[in-house]
Amino acid sequence: KDNSNDFAIRESAMSVKIFKNFVEKSGGLDVGFQAERLHGGVLLGVTGQGGVSFFDWATGGLVRRIEVEPKQVYWSDSGELVTIACEDTFYVLRFSRENYVEAVQSGEVEEDGVEAAFEVITDISESVRTGEWIGDCFIYTNSTNRLNYLVGDQTYTVSHFDKPQYILGYIQRDSRIYLADKDVNVTSFGLSLPVLEYQTLVLREDMETAAELLPTIPHDQLNKIARFLEGQGHKELALEVATDPEHKFELALALNELAIALDLAREADADHKWKTVGDAALSAWDVALAAECFTHAKDLGSLLLLHSSTGDRDGLAALAAQAQEAGSHNVAFSCQWLLGNIEACTKILTETGRLAEAVLFSQTYQPSLTVPVVHEWKENLEKNKKARVAKLIGVPGEDDELFPEWDEWLKLEKEGGVSVTEPVNGQKAESEPEAEDESEEDEE
């Protein structure tokens, strides 16, 4: 309508009169159905017979009939956007006066008005209790006692309530929305208009104007903007805007910006972040960075996989020491085994109380280490009141009848015949199976 002095009244079920500057407009309004409720705004809305019809204030002509029955209709200040709030759903439409005027001039107005006059933007399955447009943003309270706002087709929650609240209005000077309950207790919430305008521009894909507006957004709202940008698929821009280290870390990984993620991991110095960056680096084939990250993360299993795959002997040696210090004996053993360090492997088995395994292992791969381990095994059994079992165990070099080929095994060891890394004539030494057989006899 042209001004606030224009209004309409429902004189009867079938009669609606329009007043312009408090003067009744001649002819009234030809509704054509039983009017139940009127809605003001840019167009005059008349609800009845299961739908709502919008009429032009100036001409009284039907703009469009929409087959939904609203409880309330909210128009934006620009007159372009309208919310039709029904019982359990509300619809947001864009009104085009140009399309309506063009259809009228060309005589293309149908029985239900001009279809092109309205464009549906979105519909939300919520019941609006009270609402108000702030620019192109619709803010509302709903039946579940929440204060939400809608930008484009996306809704965001401002706050939750434990009882119904009703919107009083938005004061731009304060950047706050004011509400009251039924006892007229007033509450307000901060709602930055630049944030709403920025979100609107992004949804319209007007990124240049949005970039100009970005410096006006309060610093404490930047994380909110970053989350919004991420949701809209603008992750690169979200990474630039975000101030929360956790969010920046997530975005950097998502964008494969390993340098940024690495800096954030160094600042936080948290194991899980080092581990995450290490996994990302490994996926990008940056082995050196992956090794650095896994080392900081104390991820011994990943380091073992990395160093064994790349044949990094220095890395395996360092990992063996790190694992030993951390008490991760399985990893330490695997490292020493890959390095061919039989003595260190035997020592790990001995120190962890795996004496039987230590005897069999040393006897198989480096017999010269076996005798002291056997003595330690027998002593351990005696301490644990298993002297009878200890007596049954033979000692190589002392019980010759049990180990008739012992001297040959030692000779083969000196000649490299039982070397893990240097097989004899391209095949394993023939004495190895015999050593295993002897071990089985010892166990018996």
TrEMBL record:
Recorded topology in the membrane:
Peripheral membrane protein
Region (Disordered): which ranges? 414-444
Q: Which GO terms describe its cellular component?
A: COPI-coated vesicle membrane; Golgi membrane; membrane coat
Q: Which residues form the COPA/B TPR domain?
A: 198-378
Which residues are in the COPA/B second beta-propeller domain?
4-181
The entry lists its GO molecular-function terms as: structural molecule activity
What are the Acidic residues biased-composition ranges? 432-444
Q: What is its main location?
A: membrane
Q: Which family does it belong to?
A: Belongs to the WD repeat COPB2 family.
What name does this protein carry? Coatomer subunit beta
The organism named in the record is: Fusarium oxysporum f. sp. cubense (strain race 4)
